[in-house]
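quick one before i forget lol
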Amino acid sequence: MTFEAKIEQVADSILQDYQKNRDIDRIESCRTPDKDAVIDIIEKLRRIIFPGYFRDKTYRIYNAKHNLSMLIEDVMFHLNRQIALVFQNSGQSEAEAQTHAQDVCLEFFRQIPAVREMVQTDLQAAFDGDPAATGMAEIIFAYPGLFAITVYRLAHVLYALQVPMLPRIMTEYAHSVTGIDIHPGATIGKYFFIDHGTGIVVGETTVIGDNVKLYQGVTLGALSTRGGQSLRGKQRHPTIEDNVTIYAGASVLGGDTIIGRDCVIGSNAFLTQSVPACTTVSIKNQQLQMRTRTDCPQCESCSNPFCKEQA
């Protein structure tokens, strides 16, 4: 059998496998959003949120109103197209999806000033909370936490407007870039600061108050997902009240778990029960053991008296 014939044989076996009528066996084109188009929309929305930081440098003369109008028209066109696709995929007719998408796009852009107001508080929280920050520009350009929060705030508007799939694509893009996983359904108050950020998980039904700070590796998750789809719409994730700081590696799980205002949750804590206001939670230090090797070739010439004692 020739190599070409073997390839044909492999193709036939895969085509036969497609006939099992599983979810993965669909052959006809699925009307889903274009991920590259969504990423482009995010980048252009950042230019609207931070007009002086990410503006198009190809313009010789920058007229704010003219360029903003062009940018809004550009984003509106592409966003409308992506939203219409997900509405059609959810069962709406093409005409219904187009009309619905236009209404959603207009409402989304009406809420941009409110989103910008929240992002300003997040920016201020990052500056106030990080002594390493040299200025606002550094935070806007370089801090992954602010990027993830900004994308979340935009996606949350679409989520609240009941746009399927698209908000999740947006936050998962931010997740892939930053390592910070914020579900667009989470409810997050103002002055939200993520420090470092890698490995943070914020679940769909999480409620976070104002002036909350999270460090890397924090999980605000569900206690159990064994119920699967029967848990949809139920409070599965914790509530974090105002002025709470949660340090690296801590896990707070469960829909009935409430962390009261002004609490501090120490690193690596594992909480499945509520904590009253003004409480510090920490893990008792483990005992450390330190032993200097006695076979170190440098010990004879070492000037450290501790090393001499151990030897």
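fyi The chain has a mean pLDDT of 91.
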